[in-house]
Design a protein that fits this description.
The complex is a heterodimer of chains A (185) and B (337).
Chain A lengths: L20 E5 L5 E4 L1 H7 L3 H4 L14 H12 L4 E8 L5 E12 L5 E9 L3 H19 L4 H18 L4 H7 L12
Antiparallel strand pairs in A: 1-2, 1-5, 3-4, 4-5
Helix pairs in contact in A: 3-5, 4-5
Chain B lengths: L1 H43 L15 H31 L14 H117 L5 H93 L18
Helix pairs in contact in B: 2-3, 3-4
The chains are: A alpha+beta (185), B mainly alpha (337).
Bound molecules: flavin mononucleotide.
The site of flavin mononucleotide (FMN) has 17 residues of chain A, from β1, α3, β3, β4 and β5.
């Protein structure tokens, strides 16, 4: 994996289309719950995952700006969808279409976050890999993590602006399977 | 017997082992069962955050807990998806359906129903967007028509004033003509009076002539002494003849004049008829124009009303797109009775 010159070309595995990988975290992104699919696909045990920060499955090829956007969005109390490449315990990568949302208790106090991950749609993945490659290239120009994330973020916003769209519409537009018309049968 | 005893002895040893194991495990199992029950109750109360953790994956108990969590995850996912999809719809954003992938059975079927409703909303919204644009355009057109109507109303009012002026002028002309006719009549009367005076003069001249004739006869009777008188009588006679000739001339001129005046009177009568015709026409034009003024005013008022209405329609339709008065699902909870 480390030797691969081009990102997103390493060993990959997947999970079944009708499965959802679920995790819950506290407000700081510390894992408080994982479902059986998460445990199976990540290769970690429940004991290893509970209490660990969520970047335990972070893949080094993922652009930082995606997580910056993720945290900014969920901290505003909004949902976000993102195509994410994760890394299991044995170093294998696995792509997911992640949905992250804030969680509330019965008094409507925000107590953490929830994430559902689905098998990504192949027609979207091609564009996602292209975009992430250019975002990553932009981030590589900066040595400091924060500056890298900000530069990538700026490039992403620029891309959205040039397509006259917002991130949510953009993400749903990537695959024909995620359009409203395709979700009524 | 002895075999039996032995066996029973072994059995009792085994059962003691199991009993002791059960004694140590029972409280743990009890507390775990209580924990799972409490978590299920929380979820039953609508707290979809509760999950069973740390029960392992290999034992039957662990597998049961996983199955329970799977049920909770499915409900949790469906609720999050449905709320988010509908929240987007309520903001006229129709790009985000409930994702069917991973939702199972009844959850997926309900998601399809909700997405279909979302698609309907999208269609309605598309229509509203179209109608909104159309209404805005209509409002503008109506506005232009209203302005044109107002202008039309103003010009017809002006024309109405001008035709009234024309009608008045024609009426004055008719009055002037009547005056001229009267004056001509007076003139004719005066001329016939002169005619009578000329006749009197002519009579006087004839009688003078007769007298002069008599006087010359008398002068002839008087002979030599009457010679001078005869000269006077002949002078008087020639004067009378000249007077007669002059009055004849005057008579002829008067006749000529009377004929001309008759012609003038006839012409003036014709002009009068024409002017009266003009007067009638301008009067009826004035009436028509007044009716037109009324009609255009009515049109103008109606158009203004239509203009106001279409303005309101436009406003209403654009209000329905206002993203500010959107239901905030995250803040709405039904307080339990
Ligand atoms: C509910 C939730 C789920 C997340 N899921 C993932 C995930 O699947 N993969 C991942 O790399 N990061 C995930 N993150 C983001 C991580 O918290 C972290 O920001 C990210 O891995 C980047 O790590 P880094 O800041 O150390 O680079 C998740 C965060 C939350 C709140």
């Amino acid at each position: 994996m480390q030797n691969s010159t081009s990102a997103f070309s390493g060993r990959e595995k997947s999970f079944a289309e009708n499965e959802i990988i679920v995790s819950k975290t506290d407000l700081n992104g510390i894992i408080t719950y994982v479902n059986d699919v998460f445990i199976r696909v990540s290769g970690f045990s429940e004991r290893q995952l509970l209490g660990a920060p969520h970047n335990i499955i972070r893949h080094p090829d993922m652009p930082r700006c995606v997580f910056k956007l993720l945290w900014e969005t969920i901290q505003r109390g909004q949902e976000i969808f993102a195509y994410v490449l994760n890394r299991s315990k044995d170093g294998t990568g696995y792509w997911v279409f992640a949905h992250v949302t804030p969680s509330y208790d019965l008094q409507r106090r925000q107590i953490g976050y929830h994430s559902n991950r689905r098998v990504p749609y192949p027609d979207a993945l091609k564009s996602v890999k292209e975009i992430y490659t250019s975002l990553l290239a932009e981030e590589k120009k900066h040595s400091k993590n924060r500056e890298a994330a900000e530069a990538g973020h700026a490039l992403l916003l620029e891309m959205l602006a040039s397509h006259q769209t917002d991130y949510s519409k953009f993400v749903f537009g990537l695959s024909r399977h995620t359009r409203l018309e395709a979700s009524t049968t | 017997m002895s075999v039996k005893y032995q066996t029973s002895g072994r059995t009792s040893k085994v059962s003691i082992f199991w009993r002791q194991l059960w004694r140590t495990l029972r409280p743990r199992l009890r507390s775990r069962t209580a924990e799972v029950t409490a978590i299920c109750r929380r979820v039953a109360e609508g707290d979809l955050e509760a999950r069973i953790t740390g029960m392992g994956t290999r034992t039957n108990f662990g597998k049961m807990c996983q199955a329970i969590n799977q049920a909770f995850d499915m409900s949790d996912s469906f609720v999050r998806e449905a709320a988010a999809a509908m929240e987007n719809c309520s903001r006229d954003r129709f790009h985000r359906p409930i994702l069917l992938r991973g939702l199972k059975g009844a959850y997926q079927q309900s998601a399809v129903v909700i997405n279909t409703a979302g698609l309907k909303m999208k269609e309605h919204n598309d229509n509203i967007v179209f109608v909104r644009a159309q209404a805005a355009e209509n409002a503008q057109s109506v506005c232009r028509v209203a302005a044109a109507c107002e202008e039309l109303s103003a010009t017809t009012t002006e024309i109405s004033g001008q035709t009234s002026d024309a009608a008045n002028t024609a009426r004055n002309a008719v009055a002037g003509m009547t005056e001229i006719t009267d004056t001509l009549q007076e003139l004719t009367t005066a001329v016939s009076k002169i005619d009578r005076v000329v006749e009197v003069i002519n009579n006087v001249a004839m009688q003078t002539n007769l007298l002069a004739l008599n006087a010359s006869i008398e002068a002839a009777h008087a002979g030599e002494q009457g010679k001078g008188f005869a000269v006077v009588a002949s002078e008087v006679k020639s004067l009378a003849t000249e007077t007669h000739k002059a009055t004849d001339e005057i008579s002829a001129e008067m006749k000529h004049m009377q004929a001309t005046m008759a012609q003038v009177t006839e012409l003036i009568a014709k002009i009068r008829t024409t002017i009266e015709g003009v007067h009638d026409t301008t009067s009826s034009i004035a009436i028509s124009i007044r009716e037109q003024v009324q009609a255009t005013t009515e049109i103008s008022n109606t158009i203004t009303e239509v203009s106001n209405n279409s303005e309101e329609v436009s406003q209403r339709i654009s209000q329905s797109n206002d993203e500010t008065d959107v239901v905030d699902f995250s803040k709405q909870t039904e307080t339990a009775a």
